[in-house]
């Protein structure tokens, strides 16, 4: 998992996709499906209250006691029911049947003649007592229950009035003491409920977002490491690891990659990603559009931003640009591994940067709204899939499957390039833009399916890579 958040901030991909961004891909779900609902905390609390009420009904116990027992059993109704029937559940929270009867009443504040508090030894006239009627001063109770709330320990809130009394302070007692204590208690029980149901509720990691993705049972049964969702706030994330989405690879490879990237960023290996010297005349060239087809203003040399080779060498095909072939020199000096990492990192970074550029920076001068709504998000989406496909290519060994993937990446790269050039150009050619978008959607969908369905062999070199 990621440990160093600062160095990876760079890879916090912004997710500002158009609202109507609607691609049908395996593992990508829209909200109007049968797999998940976007809900809020009130919905979770309602679900919690139903569970508590059911158990209270089943065993004819009070709702606050039902809450405590459920928390003690991590909200596992079946296990609680089983052990309750066997007479073992109450002991788990230190209570007996007799205590349970006493606990049916809630505690209360009391006014009394001056007496000494058994906890702080001060004299008090305002006290508090649980249903057992053992009294302590109200200040001690408030402080004690406040501390229990902060530590999240709601199962061992004992009577303060008498040291050997077993009674537990429940929601009713918190409520009797103050509104703040009551609402604090409700927050904690809801958090406990949410945590115990983490397979069906996923809190959105979007900044400031309080939405929760509720998975329906059909999805909760699946391996979540290849499912990406989009929250109503626009945040797209992986249900498996809650990181930014990383199709077409699964969580384990994605997090390995993020770990390497963290190191890489720390070592400042390739920081200056948007300016590079022209391979011919060495003039500094800044890349402002999302195209890889570069033309040097000084010497007019045309070349590829990714591989820095003459553009015509691609000849419409990107296979050589996609495929990593270590130079004889790199092989000889034993630097092939780091050259390999560099090859894939540059392609990952460029595509991630472009996927953001396509959404955020592209000036909206293209007159056709249809093109803006379809081609721009498609290009952005394609770039992202390409970025993570390069990660897959980095990790898997040479095989037919890898060659098939490289061929498909090369085809997608070349069409994405054409689309990027059309979008950046002056011709406003709407029809070819839409046609290319449709083509890319299909190709990308096939690539994702292929990548997810293939049983890849991991490359031992990439796995043992350690940054020098
Ligand atoms: Zn006291
Ligand atoms: Zn007591
Ligand atoms: Zn959200
Ligand atoms: Zn994941
Ligand atoms: Zn030049
Ligand atoms: Zn190239």
Automatic annotation (TrEMBL):
InterPro entries xref list: E3_UB_ligase_RBR, IBR_dom, TRIAD_supradom, Znf_C3HC4_RING-type, Znf_RING/FYVE/PHD
Protein name according to UniProt: RBR-type E3 ubiquitin transferase
PROSITE patterns in UniProt: TRIAD (PS51873)
Gene Ontology biological process terms, A to Z: protein ubiquitination
Residue intervals of the RING-type domain: 113-325
Record-level Gene Ontology MF annotations: ubiquitin protein ligase activity; zinc ion binding
E.C. number: 2.3.2.31
First-tier enzyme category under EC: transferase
Pfam family membership, one: zf-C3HC4
Species the sequence originates in: Wickerhamiella sorbophila
Record's keyword terms, sorted: Metal-binding, Repeat, Transferase, Ubl conjugation pathway, Zinc, Zinc-finger
Signal peptide: none
Origin superkingdom: Eukaryota
Catalytic activity: [E2 ubiquitin-conjugating enzyme]-S-ubiquitinyl-L-cysteine + [acceptor protein]-L-lysine = [E2 ubiquitin-conjugating enzyme]-L-cysteine + [acceptor protein]-N(6)-ubiquitinyl-L-lysine
């Amino acid at each position: 998992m990621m440990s160093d958040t600062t160095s990876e901030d760079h890879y916090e991909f912004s997710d500002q996709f158009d609202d109507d961004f609607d691609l049908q891909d395996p593992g990508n779900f829209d909200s109007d499906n049968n797999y998940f609902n976007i809900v809020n905390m009130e919905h979770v609390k309602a679900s919690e209250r139903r569970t508590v009420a059911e158990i209270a009904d089943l065993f004819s116990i009070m709702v606050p006691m039902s809450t405590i027992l459920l928390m003690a059993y991590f909200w596992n109704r079946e296990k609680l029911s089983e052990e309750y029937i066997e007479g073992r559940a109450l002991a788990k929270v230190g209570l007996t049947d007799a205590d349970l009867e006493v606990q049916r009443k809630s505690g209360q504040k009391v006014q009394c003649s001056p007496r000494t508090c058994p906890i702080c030894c001060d004299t008090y006239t305002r006290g508090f007592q649980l249903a057992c009627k053992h009294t302590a001063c109200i200040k001690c109770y408030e402080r004690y229950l406040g501390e229990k709330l902060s530590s999240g320990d709601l199962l061992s809130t004992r009577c303060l009035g008498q040291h050997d009394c077993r009674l537990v302070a429940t929601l009713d007692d918190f409520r009797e003491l103050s509104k703040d204590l009551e609402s604090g208690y409700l927050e904690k029980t809801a958090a406990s409920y949410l945590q115990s149901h983490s397979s069906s509720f996923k809190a959105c990691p979007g900044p400031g977002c309080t939405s929760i993705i509720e998975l329906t049972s059909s999805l909760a049964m699946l391996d979540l490491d290849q499912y990406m969702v989009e929250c109503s706030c626009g945040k797209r994330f992986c249900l498996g690891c809650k990181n930014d989405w990383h199709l077409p690879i699964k969580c384990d490879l994605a997090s390995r990659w993020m770990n390497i990237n963290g190191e890489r960023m720390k070592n400042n290996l390739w920081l200056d990603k948007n300016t590079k010297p022209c391979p011919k005349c060495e003039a500094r060239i800044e890349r402002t559009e999302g195209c890889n087809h570069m033309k040097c203003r000084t010497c007019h040399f045309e070349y590829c931003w990714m591989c820095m080779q003459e553009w015509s060498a691609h000849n419409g095909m990107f296979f050589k640009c996609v495929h990593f072939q270590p130079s004889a020199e790199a092989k000889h000096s034993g630097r092939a591994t780091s050259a390999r990492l560099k090859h894939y990192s540059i392609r990952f970074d460029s595509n991630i940067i472009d996927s953001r550029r396509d959404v955020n920076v592209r000036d909206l001068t293209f007159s056709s709204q249809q093109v803006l709504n379809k081609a721009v998000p498609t290009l952005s989406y394609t770039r992202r899939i390409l970025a993570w496909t390069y990660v897959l290519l980095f990790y898997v060994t040479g095989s037919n499957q890898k060659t098939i993937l490289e061929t498909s990446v090369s085809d997608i790269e070349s069409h994405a390039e054409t689309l990027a050039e059309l979008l950046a150009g002056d011709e406003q050619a709407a029809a070819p833009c839409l046609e290319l978008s449709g083509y890319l959607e299909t190709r990308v969908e096939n690539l994702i399916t292929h990548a997810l369905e293939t049983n890849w062999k991991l490359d031992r070199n990439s796995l043992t890579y350690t940054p020098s």
